[in-house]
Write a structure and sequence with these properties.
heterodimer; A: mainly alpha; MetI-like fold; B: MetI-like fold
Chain lengths: 222, 243
């Protein structure tokens, strides 16, 4: 059976899968929070805030994620900051933080598109009815944005799951790391990589199908 | 804290070292993009083919590869690349690291480019194909002289955006021992214990290249692709951003 080797080394593959899922989920939650705030900064009436938001997006989108991960993992301790006293916990948190920061920039662009997609008349109407800027955001602009950004957020989620493989380069024992370890122990490269491949596909293919289905529905709805 | 190591970057030898890495990064991206472009066109056409035995394998390749992490492909070719080619080139063949990296990057990028090109082809009005066929052009001729030139031109901005992704992804081939920009940087900071300075410099170099490219692609975007094609391209851009 292809991928059967995963059951010979379950402690490596399935622990790896679990770590991949954990980093993906934490990273995505972090990215959505960061992305929303950066997007709000980018459309805010305050020019310096817009500028900071723009700089954040451009910087994180135009540098490789692996460089950012190395910075979090190697650079920050030199500046006197550690994620945790425990080494394993520390690299895990560095990886999740890196995922959140990098994908946060992409989320910000998507959310900004959603915010700008809301009809200006509604914003003006809310403001002239006496709602403050924050109330208007909370009750008018953000709820409408939420709907339109779901399918693109799904796509970012898929990218994020795939990108968690980069955590192996700073030593997180996720799926790809498991495959490399098993390969170096058994020299059964094909089997090890097929197993990792199948476990990645188990995560990304259903996500992809869900996103496509959502997208088709939204295209019809508009 | 260790002593300040910024002054060492006044030495031109260090910059020569970075430059060697940058050259490798640019080589590997250009070779990978050129290769992926050819393979990408083939799979885009394969996926649009009427023949099932061509269409289904193409769909399988494109969707399968796009669902995988590019680092997994790179590491796989790094470990097994030589063995894969031994039946062809003889038992002593050793695949250079550079080409193992190119294979991993191209496999992934070709699947993405295939989707971008396909989006360009299907967004063209059907009248184009029909007119070409009515004028007596065969199906391959229609593709070659009418559809592909227009579709590719339409997709130039999207393909440029993908080039920035490829440049960022080349930072991954350092893990299999190609001395590209990031790997050169790692060599420096393991010597001098100055990861902050080195990583900031490396990040700045990547940033300057990728930022310039993405601005250029945005400037070209003024050309108008139909809405469905734009939605498709946006999805590809979000989903296939690897590192």
């Amino acid at each position: 059976m292809p991928g059967g080797i995963a059951f010979e080394f379950p402690e490596l593959f399935f622990t790896g899968l679990w770590l991949t899922i954990q980093i993906s989920v934490l990273g995505l939650i972090g990215a959505i929070i960061i992305g929303t705030f950066v997007a709000l900064a980018r459309v805010s009436p305050l020019v310096p805030l817009r500028w900071i938001g723009g700089a954040y997006v451009e910087f994180f989108r135009n540098t490789p994620l692996i460089v950012q991960l190395f910075f979090l993992f190697l650079g920050l301790p030199f500046l006197g900051f550690r994620f945790s006293t425990d080494t394993f916990e520390s690299i895990f948190r560095a990886a999740a933080t890196g995922m959140a920061l990098y994908h946060g920039a992409y989320v910000a662009e998507v959310v900004r598109g959603g915010l700008l997609g809301v009809d200006r008349g509604q914003i003006e109407a809310a403001r002239s009815l006496g709602l403050s800027y924050l109330q208007m955001l909370r009750h008018v602009q953000l709820p409408q944005t939420f709907r339109s950004v779901i399918p693109p957020l799904g796509n970012i989620g898929i990218a994020l799951v795939k990108n968690t493989s980069l955590a192996s380069t700073i030593g997180v024992a996720e799926l790809l790391y498991a495959a490399e370890i098993v390969e170096s122990r058994t020299f059964r490269a094909e089997e090890a990589f097929v197993a990792a491949t199948m476990l990645y596909l188990v995560l990304t293919i259903p996500l992809g199908i869900a996103v496509n289905a959502l997208e088709r529905r939204m295209l019809v709805a508009r | 804290m260790r002593p300040d190591t910024w002054p060492m970057f006044a030495d031109p030898a260090i910059w020569g070292f970075f430059f060697e890495g940058l050259r490798e990064t640019i080589y590997i991206s250009l070779v990978s993009v050129a290769l992926s472009f050819i393979v990408g066109i083939a799979f885009a056409l394969g996926r649009l083919s009427r023949k099932r035995w061509i269409r289904w394998p193409s769909i399988f390749y494109i969707e399968g590869v796009r669902a995988l992490p590019v680092l997994l492909l790179i590491v796989y070719f790094g470990i097994k690349g030589s063995a894969l080619f031994r039946p062809i080139f003889g038992p002593d063949f050793d695949l250079p690291r550079f080409w193992a990296g190119v294979l991993g990057l191209s496999m992934y990028t070709s699947a993405v480019l295939a989707e971008i090109i396909r989006a360009g082809i299907v967004s063209l009005p059907r009248g184009q194909t029909e007119a070409a066929r009515a004028l007596g052009l065969s199906h391959p001729q229609t593709m070659r002289f009418v559809i592909l030139p227009q579709a590719l031109r339409l997709m130039v901005p999207a393909m440029m955006a993908q080039l920035t992704t490829v440049i960022k992804d080349t930072s991954l081939v350092g893990t299999i021992g190609v001395f590209e920009l990031l790997k050169q940087g790692r060599t420096i900071y393991t010597q001098f214990f100055n990861p902050i300075e080195v990583l900031l410099i490396v990040a700045t170099i990547y940033f300057l290249i990728c930022f310039a490219l993405s601005q250029a692609s945005r400037r070209l975007e003024v050309g108008r692709a139909p809405r469905e094609a734009r939605v498709k391209i946006r999805d590809i851009e979000l989903r296939d951003q690897a590192a």
